[in-house]
Write a structure and sequence with these properties.
With 139 residues, the protein is α/β, with parallel strands linked by helices. Strands 1, 2, 3 and 4 form a four-stranded mixed beta sheet that branches. Helix 1 links the parallel strand 2 and strand 3. The radius of gyration is 15 Å and the shape is globular. The two termini are 14 Å apart. 30% of the residues are buried.
Length: 139
């Protein structure tokens, strides 16, 4: 998927796959590249979970990073607490107040619930939805 994307990050990203779980390790230059790596991984047929441990070499302010971490943790808690959502099926990345959602939703209702929770989180300025439905032919 990284090669098809024409991405130069292939050399710096290691991917390990087992039982539908993809682990991403290595480095990328920007938070946006980290998010793109997560999105591309979710688009691969058979992926059921993405663990993104990529390290970002650019730096943001400590205050911005703290707000993003708080928003991410709050959203993860909301998803875990919502019985209508299978929280392990979703990745959350927050960069400078923008929440990036990716993963596979069982149906449109589950996807809409995830997006609604994201919009309701403090420090969220924008929500970008890369969630695909289980009925998507790519799966």
């Amino acid at each position: 998927a990284f090669i098809r994307d024409g991405s130069s990050r292939v050399a710096a990203v290691d991917v390990s796959v087992g039982s539908g779980t993809s682990l991403l390790t290595g480095t990328v230059k920007t938070p946006e590249e980290k998010i793109l790596a997560t999105k591309l991984t979710w688009e691969v047929r058979g992926v059921r979970e993405v663990v993104n441990e990529l390290q970002i070499t650019d730096s943001s302010s400590i205050k911005d990073i703290a707000k993003d971490l708080a928003a991410s943790a709050t959203l993860r808690t909301k998803l875990i607490s919502d019985s209508g959502i299978s929280s392990l099926n979703f990745s959350i990345d927050v960069v400078n107040g923008t929440v990036y959602l990716s993963g596979v939703a069982a149906n449109a209702d589950e996807m809409n619930r995830v997006v609604a929770h994201a919009r309701d989180v403090r420090f969220t300025q924008q929500v970008v939805n890369y969630i695909i439905l289980q009925s998507d032919k790519r799966l």
